[in-house]
Structure formats: structure tokens, C-alpha cells
Amino acid sequence: MPVAVPDGPPAREDANGGVREPETLPAAEPPAAGASGRDEQGGRRRLISALWPPRVTRAQLIVALLLFGLGLGLAIQVSSTSDNSALRGARQEDLVRILDELDDRTQRLEDEKARLEKQRSELESSSDQAEEARKQTQEKERQLGILAGTVAAEGPGITLSVGDPSGSVESDMLLDAIQELRAAGAEAIQVNGVRVVADSYFTGSGDDMRIDGTRVAAPYVFKVIGKPEDLEPALNIPGGVVQTLEKEQATATVERSAKIVVDALRPAKRPDYAQSSSQ
Length: 279
Fold this sequence. Notes:
The chain contains seven helices and ten strands. By secondary structure, it is α+β, with helices and mostly antiparallel strands.
């Protein structure tokens, strides 16, 4: 006959052979509400203490500096690119002219570099270095005299003739022509018998036009020594000197020549304060 086994822990016999009731374990008490709140606050404090103050490692600092440098470089690149935005609206022929002028200036600098290197080589290899140095000094003096207007010069170039029948030509228009010619590589300039140098100035207009205080009258004849292939296009560019003068009812003609003579001279001025620093 089967015997039913009661649920729960098995009964134990006592010392007298009797049966004891099974022992029951006390039920676990739920945690108090106050203890749970304290644990939660303690966890928050530990989390905050782990996050603040932030602990920056050396690797993180290096990465931050690299990113800052990269951002600064990009900002400078964008700024420099935006500065050249004025060329985006230029016409193709103007861009070609600008590139040609840059190429010409680069070539002139290369030629000057080659000339100086040749002079140095001659000084180093010459048997009579003192005589060679004297010759080069005289040549340098002649070149500086041409730039200062104290020495006459001749060479290829152009002649620019500006007629002003209506008297509308202003001094700044003639000055613009000088600046354009210098930018194109003009080496010596003379206007109506007045030598134009670095410190020359133009004033007045019409019948009272003056160059360095000397009155000049139309037609204004510019004799310019330089490379004709560079000088003439510089005056005839769209919106350049020739077109500006024609808008003022003036006439402007440019002629190339294999020989231009610039013989107007300026007196050599002795400086009041500056002295040579060479020993």
C-alpha cells in the first residue's frame, strides 16, 4: 500500500524515539527603505567622483592639440582661398595677362640672379680681383644712375602719346600710366622732357599740369625703355590706361621702337642725414 509523503522538510526523531516537527527557517526580512536610499546616494557620489574633476591623460592632451592645430590650419586655408575670390570673376584674357606678367617678373628675377652669380664667379676666379671689383662697381654705379635719373639711357621700348583737346586729363591718370608701366618692367621713363623717378609726383590738370613742380602741356609724350612686348599690352588691357583716357575724350597712341633715348637728367641730391655704412 503506497504511503503519501508529506510536503516540506522531513520529520526528525527525538531522543525518546518520538517524532519532532520539522524545523522551519525564519523568513528573510525585506531591506529597510532608508538603507536603500543611502545606497543609491552613495552610488551617485561614487559616480560623480569618478567623472569630476575630469582626468586628462597625456595621450588625450596630445590628440586635442593636434585637432586644434588641424582646425586652425583649415581656417587659415579657407581664409586665404576667400581672399583670392576676386580672381574668380575675372575674364579669361585678364587672367592670361596676369599670368604672363608673373612669368615675366619671375624671368627678370631669374636673370638678375644669374647676373649676380656670374659677378661672384668672376670675382672669385679673376687674377686681378681689385680691378674686377672696380669694373663691377662702375657698372653698378651706372645702373643706379639710370634708376635715379642722373644718367642718360637708351634701349628698346615704347612711346606713349596722350592728346588732351578737351583738357579733361587729370594728374592721377598720368600717374596711373606711370604705375602700369613700372609694373610691366619699365626701367627709364621721361615725360615731356622731365625724368620720372621713384619719388616723382604729378599735380594739377589741363593747362596747369605739373611733374615734380615743372609745368608740362599736352600732348604728353612718354618715352619708356623696357621690353616692348610687355609695355604695350599693359597699357592696352581692357579697362586699362588707354581705355580710361579715351573715355575722357583724350587720345592715346602707343608705338614700339627698337631704340628709345631717355636723356632728361635730374640733379644728384646729397642726403642730409643718411651715410654709407660700408667700411
